[in-house]
Amino acid sequence: MILKSSVLGAAGEHYAMCQLLRQGLIAALAPAGVPNCDIVVTDGIGARLCAIQVKTRVAKGSDGGWHMSKKHESLSSPTLFYVFIDFGKTVTTPPVSYVVPSGIVADVVHREHAAWLAQPAKRGKPHADSEFRRFMPDYEKMGLMIGCGPGWLEPYREAWAVLTDASAATADTDAVSAALGQATTA
């Protein structure tokens, strides 16, 4: 079964909302066209608020990553999180989610692109810059040595609890990373 990207994106957003609601949070889809936010999240009394951007993929392609763009290098806020969802190869494959603070995503996407630009392209010529970026679970597999090799994303796997902790939802990304046991630099 082939899923169109808009249907796949909607499936990811609804899956993320389901997980947020299961954590006891109030979650709602942001209005269509809102930049940088797919889901708005708060607690039962409105004491905290965060935004979620959902990125969804199915298991195709060789790098196991998600499409990003240049703007994701600079999107960083203590209350913005990404949920990266991998729906796997079939509809019976259990989804895997990674809940990652936006500051970490911005840093990794920036370092990934800089490393890619520094590598020679075919026939030794430089890569042409573009808006295209990738967020991957293993950059070393693609020859990008930025300190994000196999397993670097595991501390964020199913890390929904980071959104239920009031202090984590308003903490800076370095504190959130420390709570997850993950360094933000190579």
Defining traits:
disordered C terminus; 5 helices; Trna Endonuclease, Chain: A, domain 1; two-stranded antiparallel sheet; five-stranded mixed sheet; alpha+beta; 186 residues; single chain
Summarize the structure in words.
The protein is of the alpha+beta class. It has a single domain, classed as Trna Endonuclease, Chain: A, domain 1 (3-Layer(aba) Sandwich). Helices cover 28% and strands 20% of the residues. It is built from 5 helices and 7 strands; from the N terminus they run H-E-E-E-E-E-E-H-E-H-H-H. The chain has helices spanning 5-22, 102-118, 161-164, 166-170, 173-180; strands at 26-29, 39-42, 49-57, 66-69, 80-86, 96-101, 132-135. A 5-stranded mixed β-sheet has the order 1-2-3-5-6. The protein has a two-stranded antiparallel ribbon with strand order 4-7. It starts with a helix and ends in a 6-residue tail after the last helix.
Listing every helix as H and every strand as E from the N terminus to the C terminus, the arrangement reads HEEEEEEHEHHH
Distance between the termini: 39 Å
CATH class: Alpha Beta
By secondary-structure content and strand pairing, the structural class works out as alpha+beta
